[in-house]
Amino acid sequence: MSVHKAQTIKKVTTHQLQEMKNRGEKIAMLTAYDYSMARIIDDAGIDVILVGDSASNVMAGHETTLPITLDQMIYHAASVIRAVKRALVVVDLPFGTYQGSSGEALRSAIRIMKEAGAHAVKLEGGAEIKDSVQRILSAGIPVMGHLGLTPQSIYKFGTYTVRAREEAEAAKLAEDAALLEKCGCFAIVLEKIPAELGRKVSKSLQIPTIGIGAGPDTDGQVLVMQDMLGITKEFKPRFLRRYADLSTIVNDAVTRYVNDVKSGDFPNESEKY
Question: Is 191 an annotated catalytic residue?
């Protein structure tokens, strides 16, 4: 076991994330949606696993995050939870499960916590979802906020371009971040905003910020696992760093398997009983 793993085997909690920010230690966060991959990244030392509604895209093939249901999110979250020994597992509340009323939001969050065994939930938005955030927090459920580019609002924005470039939108984002902190959120994701705004908001808050396309000065970073592993190749935003090319590796492996089966080479004498 590496020195890093030996030092960080202790279960990650929201309190530990706050301590990490306080001492200037960056927080590493990735998405996961199934048992096998969650087990690998948990063992590798990831701090936070997000069971994101991005499962709608990378697992189900939808164009947006909107179609995924609460039942489907619970299924993915439960699969991840069964694999995890160390990381904090945060689960997205999917579109339509918290915007309508704070009561509906609380029921949705309770289902995720009870049926999946999650550690926290994440909601997109600021002042407009304040009541839902407070209602969920009142039940003792930790909440992570999400500001900037909020994919559940893609049809409102009409584009996945960088958010909060204009002064008014930047000011609104900063106000929303302060509001979410005051409400009791333990952290906030900042997605696809100017790096300078990411730095200012992160410095202004006591709670940690997790960036995705928000510059290097947030308190942590998050990527979609399929993107950083090179499984999805058509998605190429500037903020994405690919750490592997699994699409090519898997394609090559399957091609060789097909060839071996077709030629009769697999299984060979040493591979039969």
Answer: yes
pTM above 0.90, yes or no: yes
Q: What are the pLDDT digits (tens) for 113-170?
A: 999 999 999 999 999 999 999 999 999 999 999 999 998 887 666 667 889 899 999 9
Within a 10 A sphere around the Cβ of 189, how many other Cβ atoms?
Answer: 27
CATH number at residue 237: 3.20.20.60
DSSP string of 68-124, one letter each residue? --HHHHHHHHHHHHTT-SSSEEEEEPPTTSSSS-HHHHHHHHHHIIIII--SEEE--
**Do 212 and 263 belong to one domain?**
no
Pair 23, 137 in one domain: yes
Instruction: Kindly state whether residues 65 and 97 are assigned to the same domain.
Output: yes
Residue 17 burial class via C-beta count within 10 angstroms: exposed 0-12, middle 13-18, buried 19 and up:
buried
Task: Report residue 118 CA to chain centroid gap.
Answer: 13
CA distance 4 to 255: 37
Burial class (CB in 10 A: 0-12, 13-18, 19+), 253: exposed
- Pick the catalytic residue from 19, 104, 167, 191: 191
Extract the tokens encoding 67. 């179609």
Pair (236, 259) in one structural domain: no
Query: Is 33 in the same domain as 137?
Result: yes
Shared domain check, 269 and 158: no
When divided into structural domains, the chain yields a total of: 2
- Reading the block at residue 170, the tokens are 């930047």
Q: Which domain holds residue 164?
A: 3-242
pLDDT tens for each residue of 224-251: 999 999 999 888 899 999 999 999 999 9
